[in-house]
Amino acid sequence: MRTPIAVSVAAISGAAAVFGAGALANGGSGAQSAAQVPGENRALFAVLSGKKEVDDEGNRGAGDRNGRGTFSATVDGDQLCFGLTVKNLDMPGAAHIHRGGKRRNGPIVVPLEHPGNGDPGASAGCVTVDEDTVAAILRRPGRYYVNVHTAAFGGGAVRGNLFRR
Known about the structure:
The protein is α+β, with helices and mostly antiparallel strands and 165 residues long. The chain has helices at residues 2-25, 131-139, and strands spanning 43-49, 68-76, 79-87, 92-99, 108-112, 121-128, 144-150, 158-161. The chain has one domain (2-161): Immunoglobulin-like. The N and C termini lie far apart (30 Å). Mean pLDDT is 84; it is low at 1-32.
């Protein structure tokens, strides 16, 4: 019975991200900054799993092997609005966007509101992000990843690199 909730939240988050990107692409935003390019796809996504987490040496599988999740976001100026869902995790304690490739851990660049539960769990919100950071994420999303931490997996329980469609 819990699975449909996570799937529904993921679907709503994804739809909101795509709708928001479409509105922005059609001129839905007023002022332009360096991070706002007309017609640019401003939606970000990630598919999270424990198998994608890496240890300090870059070895995959360092997270919760049963854990899964989704992330979607839209960017409007210095605002990143997101939806995050997780499943099969212990209680989440933190969530972030980090700078780092698929096999490299990196520093936190955007703190996120973590889900209030882990099976299933969801969170959503908008955060203010430095303009240079937003521009860098949009330029090369694959160089950034989202992860969710739990007490048992302090380095990260689930992880997924960002991408755009």
